[in-house]
């Protein structure tokens, strides 16, 4: 299964260590197309190259897993595109964060939205989601 992992980049890197743990778990059972989301930023390709590459990966993906706790325009855009392309989407939102999830994500019946307390719980939600995609 090819997974497009989405997480905040320019909207803030506070959760990057969590993204790294989620991507490490995803890699145990799938191909992650977007590992850079989890790694420390080094340099920046031009914006149009980034958009071209990310849209190509999204079209190739069998599933999208997004960490949505840090609200990001780019992640929200990717979620809307994934829905339009008919790609299954899992949104992971950490409980206890000082933010409220957007109604456009939390209210979308086509997205599986998992509120999680810790990374172990997020990983078990990932497993259930990928089992269903794989099945
Ligand atoms: O609006 P944001 O920057 O927070 O959007 C984050 C989302 O957009 C991620 O899920 C990525 O898929 C995508 N994205 C945004 N910036 C980049 C990027 N910049 N490279 C690839 N995808 C991106 C280069 C940073 C890299 C060197 C770590």
How would you describe what is shown here?
- By secondary structure, the protein is an alpha/beta fold.
- The protein is 44% helix and 18% strand.
- The chain contains five helices and five strands.
- The chain has a five-stranded parallel β-sheet with strand order 2-1-3-4-5, sandwiched between helices.
- Helix 1 crosses helix 5.
- The chain is globular, with a radius of gyration of 14 Å.
- The mean pLDDT is 96.
- Bound molecules: N6-isopentenyl-adenosine-5'-monophosphate (6IA).
- The site of N6-isopentenyl-adenosine-5'-monophosphate (6IA) has 21 residues, from helix 2 and helix 3.
Oligomer: single chain
Give the overall pLDDT as a whole number: 96
Total beta strand runs = 5
Identify the bound ligands.
Answer: N6-isopentenyl-adenosine-5'-monophosphate
Low-confidence stretches: none
Over the alpha carbons, how many angstroms does the gyration radius reach?
14 Å
Number of helices: 5
General shape = globular
Helix content: 40-55%
- Strand percentage lies at 15-25%
- The topology string of helices and strands comes to EHEHEHEHEH
Helix/strand class: alpha/beta
Which sheet architecture does the biggest sheet show?
A: 5 strands, parallel
End-to-end distance = 11 Å
- Lateral arrangement of strands in the main beta sheet: 2-1-3-4-5
